[in-house]
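Notebook, bench 3.
Goal today: get a predicted structure for EamA domain-containing protein from Exaiptasia diaphana so we can plan the truncation constructs. The sequence was checked against the plasmid map this morning, with no discrepancies at the termini. Length recorded as 386 residues. Pasting the sequence as submitted so the record is complete.
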Amino acid sequence: MCSPFSAQNWRRASAELSSIPLLPIRRHSSPSGGTVNAENTSFDCQSESFRTFTSINGIISLARRQSQDENSLYHKVVFLCKANYGLLLTTMSGVLFALASLFVKFSNTTIPAFEIIFVRLVIQTLFVIPPAIYSRANLFGEKKHRIYLVIFGAINFACISSIYGAFTLLPLGDATVIISTTPVFTAIMAYFVLKEAWHKHDAVSTFFCLAGIVLITRPTFIFGNQSNHPSHVTNAHRLMGYSVALFGAIIQSVTFIVVRGFGNSISFFTSVFYFGWCSAILSGISMFIFQTPVLPDCGPARWYLLSVAIFGVLGSLCLNRGLQMENAAPAALMRNVDILFAFVFDVACFGEQPSPLTVVGALIVCLSTTGAVVLKWYRSRGTIML
């Protein structure tokens, strides 16, 4: 008895297939009332496609070509992007927040902090409504989640107010390096609250990222008074500023954990919407109680303020969506790339030359954030071999 995979059987099957009579042409009615002829197709035994599927070698060759296509550079890049889509979104949020900071510096106005927060959050609330309606997202959320969403909005207001307060009480470098400790608190909270894994690689990446941030910002409590810091800042103000900045970092970690805890049960449009209107109400009340609102000057100042709001809104959307798709600690780590872009904007737009320590710190931040993506890919490549 010959093997079913022998050449004789394949030739016999080909002959039998070619001897099958063609089906008669069938006519069917079209929706417009006419008749349509079905295609009268036949198998060409001499065609390349037919010979491919009637030959073992052809089938193996086709499978090998498909396997090579799947292992091509394009497919590797696509898989890497899909596997790290959440990290890409959080990185993009850092770039957008850096752009918002750039337009804050461009505005060069005496607009109070609570007024900037109020304008940004009002625009954020209005901006998120159309895409939420288009995607049929439940803006107000389910009834059982609404109280938690309101608390989430209030926590975000405390976070953004603490960050602005730290910048007014501390030198920019000191405030930035304290607030940038968010990934450390996020990792600790995610480990205990969300039961997320915390690998040694993540700890190493976090350590080097924070080390690079320290070299970039050069805080006075490490490098002394070598940096350019205002002399009018007293020790009492600095102590209060450190406390406010540390509080802001912890609160920002809480917001990351809350969004991650929501997961996909709540649309990221809903979380951004609650962040917007709750914080807008609280910032509006605080603006009239603690500060005096002013009308921005006519001209570029208003456009700069609008740009701050738009980039801030887009950054919030990317950040909240990225946190839903990615573990909290790596997402918070990638969020810190806004510091690097802020220094790039300083050089490109304001002509400020970075010091050698700044260049070294920027390289460390790039390597540590890139390492977070590479290590995550290495841990996930067990599903698909590259």
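The longest helix spans residues 235-262. The radius of gyration is 30 Å.
Flagging this for group meeting.
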